[in-house]
Amino acid sequence: MSAPNTSFDPVEVTPLHADEVARARDEALAAIAAAGSLDELKAARLAHAGDRSPLALANREIGALPPAARAEAGKRVGGARREISEALKARQEVLEAERDERVLVEEAVDVTLPYDRRPRGARHPITTVAERMADIFVAMGFEVAEGPEVEAEWFNFDALNMPPDHPARSMQDTFFVADPSAPEPRESGLVLRTHTSPVQARALLGRELPVYVVAPGRTFRSDELDATHSPVFHQLEGMAVDRGLGLADLRGAIDAFVSEMFGSGLRTRFRPSYFPFTEPSAEVDMECFVCRGASVGRPDRPCRTCGSEGWIEIGGCGVINPRVLRACGVDTDTYSGWAFGIGVERTLMFAHGAQDMHDIVEGDVRFASAFGMEI
Amino acid sequence: MRVPLSWLREYVDLPAEVPARELAAKLVAAGLEVETVEESGAGLSGPLVVGEVLAFEVLEGFKKPIRYCRVDVGKANGSGEPQNIICGAANFEAGDRVVVALPGTVLPGGFAIGARKTYGKMSEGMICSVAELGMGEDHSGILVLPQGTPAQPGDDAVPLLGLDDHVLDIAVTPDRGYALSIRGVAREAATAYGLPFRDPAAIEAPDTAEGSWPAAVEGEGICHRYVLRGVTGFDPAAPTPVWMRRRLELAGMRSISLAVDITNYVMLELGQPLHAWDRTTLRGPLVVRLAREGERLETLDHVERRLDPDDILITDDSGPINIAGVMGGLTTEIGDTSTDILIEAAHFAETHIARTARRHRLNSEASRRFERGVDSALQLAAATRAVELLAELGGARIDPGVTHVRRERPAPAIELRLDHPGKVAGIDYPHGAVLEALRDIGATVRAGGRVLDLSEPYTVETGTDTVTVEPPTWRPDLTEPNDLAEEVIRLEGYESIPARAPQAPAGHGLTRAQRLRRRVGRALAADGYTEVLNFPFTAARAYDDLRLPDDDPRRRTLRLVNPFSDDTPLLRTTLLPGLLDALARNAGRGFPDAALYETGLVYLRGEGGFAPPPRLSVDRGPSPEELAELAASIPEQPRRVAVALSGQREPAGWWGPAQPAGWADAIEAARTVVREAGLELTAEAARHAPWHPGRCAALHLTAPDGERILIGHAGELHPRVVAAYGLPERTAAMEIDLDPVERLAQEPTAPGVSTFPAAYQDVALVVPAATPAQDVQDALRAGAGELLESLRLFDVYQGDQIGADRKSLAYALRFRAPDRTLTTDEITTARDAAVTAATERTGAVLRGA
Ligand SMILES: [Zn+2]
């Protein structure tokens, strides 16, 4: 060695020597790669990227270099430290993911456990079927009309062209409400309505013409309760009174209902019949929506829905008898109308396979539950 | 109406190959409801022949005497030799003609006949009874063919007895009385096939001034025609011929005696009910009149009947002898010795007969026809047909005299625009088609006062667009243009009616109340309740079981005159009995953890007197006053919703213990309902049957004007009610009126949603145990002011730490301002104000303070 040297050779500062920087970097990267846990990685971070790590110490030496040498040394050390930092970050992510995986797996549950904690309820299928039937007409512009269940005989019979001695009136199996002022039960002029048709008269008396209404509702006949009959049952009444209405308009409404409710393309059939409140009157059949007639005369392929008849009777209908319109104050020279009645229970039975009227009336939770909230 | 096809074919020449089912389908299309087509000889195959018993030997030593017969069966057995047949019956003599099933015959029901050894003899076939032939229920002996039966030994017995017939069973609608006869159905069949119709009523009848028996009609509008014809020298022992018996049986009537059978036969054939008297029992002239107060008659069925002044009677000098059109009296009945017979054929007023039949509960084949209206011009022909049969089959002599009282109603005439049927159908029918249909139903058509000859295709003269139609006498149901339109449309065919899509004006959809009802159902179902639809019939006991006080308004029930069951004659005034029964039924079927709901009407009997509804006119619309009077007589029928629940609301499971169903669920169900209407409910303690006196809430809504409206009750049921209905312990229930909920329902309005931070404060307040939480909550809410966003009771504590008879209610309060972050001061001030209000109103003390 000789006299003091005013020039400073950077290669003489060992930590900043290129080989030395590369060595420190390689050691760091090896330690990071070898870290098998987040704790080991933390130790590696401390040793190789902490304040006392070789490259941190080397970085401090840069200031001692002559200005000309600083840039190159700074670049060399900085590059190495960046590489280490990125490796740490990448390894950290890998190890964290591994840890999360391990921990969440430990938290696993049996997802097949039943959770029948809040038993669900249901609406009665008669309610929901009647709503669906009514909604088809509501969508066509009809309104839903209502009336009382204990009804005046005038509305239930007289206004509907069933005067007191009309044979149809005694055929109706009427429940008579007793006169509350009499000690012994005797008729009072009030009945449990035998059909939803009195709502026709009420709607005509309560609305401006034209009138397009449907009336779903509960009706009563003094029938026995058996598999297909009930003294309490439901009908959907439909009625339109407007200028120039006839059977063709009725058929159009019925066809629209049938295709909405049971499927498009089903044929309907009108058979002449008799109802006092319509003239002409018809019974309506629709093509069986299950077999579409394919079961007729084929004992090998019977159809339960239509009894292999190919047709299903869905209700009665007709052109409103002008006497009914007159009793409701409608000018029959200008207006005419049509009406129909469809059984809701029957519809539920053939559309959804309900077999026994008892199930419909007994309130067993199992029955309604099968149908849920809507049909 | 049961129609044997062979009978029908007498009046219309249906092609032999027309199957019964095809005819049935055509009649259905024409408006006759053919319910069934029966094949009466189903399963029968010959050789079934007429035989003549030549002789028989009685075999002794068996349980009953057995006859070993030699029977001439002509050439039917191939040999022509008599057939040897064993027979257990004894109701025949040598020389009688019988029906023999030769070996190889299969009788109805698959009973195969062979030659076999029996009672020690070889029997070559069987002599048949009525039952064995499938002709009826008579097992009393073999069928002996009546004298004069046009048959020889060896003749095929199948056509002779009409064993291979078809029967159409037609459900006759009230407007088609004429179809309660072979005549009426044959006319429809002829029209359906475009064939000529031979009218069985086209009978030459003498119209003589000489009466057969004096008679008069007293009173207007009770009898429009009254015809009497008589015979003498009738042989009461004459048998009913086999063909007539067979037809009566196929038509569903029993053979009784020749005279009675003839009256029934003519009724079935022509549709005119007849009555037959033993003429020797009549005293003096017959009078048709209404009954007088206090008159009585013992009828054929041995019932002494008190007659009503509305009943039409036939009387003679002895007093009433018949209830007209409904039933004859006992003393004038024809019997098995009657030789002189008087036949009555009448046209009585339909409505009288209907009322009388109902009043005396005497619905008969005759009253059914009179009620629906018989042909008003048929009586003379029908009576004549009957006496002719009595003469032909019973050897009687016909009296030449005819009693014929005529009080006819004017024939109705209907003005018909020829385009009206087309308008009713929604199709254009040619005028010719309309007139043809009118012709086919037998109407007389006039245009410009002239009767149109419709036998030829008719061309309508220009300008003739309206005709006058006189319906035939057998169609009293045709009174209006629409009735005629129906005739045209059904004969043209309903299948040709097109479908025109409905053109309803834009509607309003469901009303708010209707939508609310649906939401209420969905909300309850979503909350675990299952809907049931109970019968509204209740027993008086049901109200006792609810422990209702004697003066409870729910005991003011309406009653049915003719209840579904004598046990349940009352109409419900509350939904609870039905719901509780349904709950018990479910528990009994293994579902003790059930929650049910029902929405429906209850029927209230007002406190005041009852004014029966007026019977308004039907010729015009009712006036507002009339409608109001009618409305006033109709009982109030409010709509209710109710729930009942028992057992566990939530079952125990891996998530924790079970939650029992209870009073709180029932009250919450009411809140669930009113929440759907945007309303809030206030509950207060109440004592009200059928609830537990300490666990019952009266439920109120508050109207916009501040009025509190009681809408119902909820809570746990009284333990004795629970026991009476056989329900699980602690069953809870709720019942409220839906009408006020619908009336007060609020449309939801959008709230302002503040995004400023919320501040949370918990307060625990100690109050006397009896203080309702509702009061504390109301006070807190009032005191906290507008900054309070929500308030929730999160704990109720009772115990040593706060002393007996006290409880601690812990509330979480959340404050928020719409426009700023609240300061600590503001929050503290609001909280303190809430506590102060609670203290002032309920004596609440801040716990730990
Ligand atoms: Zn089918």
Protein model, in words:
- Chain A: Residues 135-349 form the Aminoacyl-transfer RNA synthetases class-II family profile domain.
- Chain A: It is found in: Cytoplasm.
- Chain A: It comes from Allonocardiopsis opalescens.
- The complex is a heterodimer of chains A (375) and B (849).
- Chain A is an alpha+beta fold and 375 residues long.
- Chain A has 2 domains: 10-106; 125-369, 2-Layer Sandwich (BirA Bifunctional Protein, domain 2).
- Chain A has 13 helices and 10 strands.
- In chain A, the strands form 2 sheets. Chain A has a 7-stranded mixed sheet with strand order 1-5-6-10-9-8-7, sandwiched between helices.
- In chain A, helix 1 packs antiparallel against helix 2 (38-49), helix 1 packs parallel to helix 4 and helix 3 (54-61) runs antiparallel to helix 4 (67-106).
- The longest helix of chain A has 40 residues, at 67-106.
- Chain A is rod-shaped, with a radius of gyration of 44 Å.
- In chain A, 47% of the residues are buried.
- Residues 1-8 of chain A have low confidence and may be disordered.
- Chain B is of the alpha+beta class and 849 residues long.
- Chain B folds into 6 domains: 2-40 and 166-193, 2-Layer Sandwich (Phenylalanyl-tRNA Synthetase, Chain B, domain 1); 48-161, Beta Barrel (OB fold (Dihydrolipoamide Acetyltransferase, E2P)), CATH 2.40.50.140; 215-406, 3-Layer(bba) Sandwich (Phenylalanyl-tRNA Synthetase, Chain B, domain 3), CATH 3.50.40; 414-494, Phenylalanyl-tRNA Synthetase, Chain B, domain 1 (2-Layer Sandwich); 512-609 and 624-744, 2-Layer Sandwich (BirA Bifunctional Protein, domain 2), CATH 3.30.930; 759-846, Ferrodoxin-fold anticodon-binding domain (Alpha-Beta Plaits), CATH 3.30.70.380.
- Chain B is built from 21 helices and 44 strands.
- In chain B, helix 6 (258-270) packs antiparallel against helix 9 and helix 11 (431-440) packs across helix 12.
- Chain B is elongated, with a radius of gyration of 41 Å.
- The mean pLDDT of chain B is 92.
- Chains A and B meet through helix 5, strand 1, strand 2, helix 6 and helix 7 of A and helix 7, helix 10, helix 12, helix 13 and strand 30 of B.
- Bound molecules: zinc ion.
